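Protein in question passed on here:
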Amino acid sequence: MTQGMTADYHQIARLTEQVYDLARQAHEIHVTSPAGTDLTARFDPALRWVPCTGIYHRAGQWGNLPEGETFTCPATAEGVVAASVLGDYFSEKYGVLPTPIFFHISAGEISCGQAPTRRWWMKSPPISLRPKTDGAWANVPSAPTSASTG
């Protein structure tokens, strides 16, 4: 955080705008990783891209610091995300996971999550987290343990 706050924000703004110019033309992105991520996201031109340059001069403008990101919301996503870092709370508590957790995404929603048997995560073999119709989550036993979706 300290290094990001001392960066040259005019240079960050130029690079962010270059990424924005490329990204806003995208119709689809396919992301893979050696850990097992294999995700395709499709974009809708009606859902705008937002460049966050870190330079704000008008009342009402805001951003997160340090800056330098370009983002949107995909229209939909399909595939698998392998995650070894789970965000501020879980990463502080558990660190970087030695084996990733796999989130299976179908029609833009997490359809199941799989993790190795670990006391910090579960007391039984891997589970699937499937959304209930009311938006809550239910633990459902899972049969497959690979990162494959099909």
